[in-house]
Amino acid sequence: MSQPTSRRGGGGETRDTDWDGVRLHVVSGKGGTGKTTVAAALALALAAGGRKVLLVEVEGRQGIAQAFDLPPLPYEERKIAVAPGGGDVYALAIDPEEAMLEYLEMFYGIRRVGKALTRIGVVDFATTIAPGLRDVLVTGKTSEAVRRRDKLGRRVYDAVVMDAPPTGRISRFLNVTQEVAGLARVGPIKNHADLVRGVLASPETAVHFVTLLEEMPVQETLDGVAELRETGLPVGGVFVNMVRPALLPARALKAAAEGRFDAAEIALGLKAAGLADASAGASAIAEALAEEVAEHALRAELEKRERAELEEAGTPRYDLPLLPDGADLAGLYELADALRAQGAV
Amino acid sequence: MTRTAPALDIDAILDDPDTRIIVCCGSGGVGKTTTAAALGLRAAERGRSVVVLTVDPARRLAQAMGLTELDNTPRRVDGADGGGEAGGELHAMMLDMKRTFDEIIEAHADPERAEQILTNPFYQSLSSSFSGTQEYMAMEKLGQLRRSNEWDLIVVDTPPSRSALDFLDAPERLGRFLDGRLIRILTAPAKAGGRSAFKLLNAGFGVVAGILTKVIGAQVLRDIQLFVTALDAVFGGFRQRAEQTYRLLQAPGTAFLVVAAPERDAMREASYFVERLAEERMPLAGLVVNRVHRSPAPSLSAARSSAAAEDLEARGEHELTAAVLRLHAGRMQLAAREQRQREHFTSAHPTVPIAQVPAMPEDVHDLAGLRQIGQLLAS
Q: Taxonomically, which superkingdom (chain B) (predicted)?
């Protein structure tokens, strides 16, 4: 059921994965869907087998530090995890102010003056008056990491994963040229935005969506995919998070959803398992369990409908299991395995 | 030792005529908007005249409240008066951020200046972008609704911010922005009668101006200057109102409800928010925990349930019962994990009352669903 609906890429490498050739993975999702967790797991999965991956966050929430159980990350690329089979995950919390200073230094060699600009509130000003400028700074820093090469001309990072803003804001956030077009028709800001747009709109980028099998996140995912396509940005996969294992046979679920679930059979089972000795006790528990099954069946029906809705997006889809102990560090590795097993990376 | 949080008495808050504003805040995806709508409906059915201000409702929730268009005006919700006996009524509106902003400009500037501002590219970017502006405008709209005195209760759903704290930061950020030295530099030409600002300032600022021109371009700098100059006259009133609204939030007639789901990140965000409200001396009424999982068979523990399932599976008997027991064990584990999250919260904030709403198998899309949530909130 979780088989991707389409596959692409796959030149020459030993593993044929869906996103071969993609070097920037942008991960978006509605609040509460586990976007940061999935971005972290994706970074681990991409690094597996000796690759070097940078995981960036752009909203100052320190979500990566929390996911990996680390103290807050500075504006500095540092190694935070080792992937299965010996790859490295680096992390960077992008701060727009620092990104601006770096930008001034890199392009104009004027870091000191940049500091003066910061002191008089240029960044505050930029983020307040034109939030688009902030977005250009953080997407700019990210695409710089994607393009960066070492002295020998090799790519510094095999891939970059961005824990991006939520689905409701993602198109605007990534559509940097549009965002600054009204503000700067010519000049350095426009040139920089065009450069960033070149990276974001290239086949080397994929924008993924994290969702749950619930109505609102699914609707937002479909809206987000449509919006992204409209703006000409590359849509990646849909990651269905917190998927519960199907414990009950379809027949039992159907009966439960229609209120025909047989509690008497459960009562017999409970007695056989030694959970209730008296018949009255067994049937009381069986009734309560039947109620639980009925709720579960309704939920399962809804999930099935939502899954069918997601088909409309026409993108590869991956299932990530619900982690019984929550998304702790061990859980991230488990999710990374699930991504690799499904051929996402 | 397990601490038990005091129960949050929702009806006492809704029924108190002194409660004039309820603010629902919390991180994204925890059901804030649904909570706000359910509270509004319950208050109306208990006799109050209520307006619910939502920022970005899900389509079906909006439909449930009869909101078919984003028109920035409160619309009456039919069938929400409790059968007319209690005499309450419910209105709902969706915030149109750009229109709210335009209206402020039109109200505070003369027509010529308003035109200058409304057509400036920086204004258009600022007024239609999501980050920041939505918070200012939600605050502004709240202030307007309160000043109109047409409703005796306003329920606000805060914007789906990057951080739940942005809502509180809005007035201060605006103030910092307006007091910024950069603004003073940029507005200087107008104040100096049209001569270049930069000549009046010391050499350091001259360098800054040169850099600004180099980095952002002369045209952009000119647009920014025109925009800031035009806005300057409007800002005073704007800021004063933001401060008024901020004080309104601190007043005793306001009740903040922090909304969360029983998961680590959402509860952590709720904790931050509770601490922040205390710092800002904002009146916190309590915590609403949505989507709580319970079991109708709580006496059968996860451990016993799993062991029995294993036993049946090993014997190859009662397959269905074994599956049901596995399902139950999972549910009990989830419930236990959620309870630990709540206990963490209560250890840190022992006096904060809590209301819990069980997880629903399906999303809410009509008034009956909202009514049910309201009942669960109050029980």
A: Bacteria
